Amino acid sequence: MVKHLTTQEFKEKVFNYEQNQEWKFEGDKPCIIDFYADWCAPCRMVAPILEELSKEYDGKIDIYKVDTETEQELAMVFGIRSIPSLLFVPKNGQPQMAMGALPKETFVRAIDEVLGVKPPIIITK
Question: CATH fold of 3-113, please?
Answer without folding.
Answer: Glutaredoxin (3.40.30)
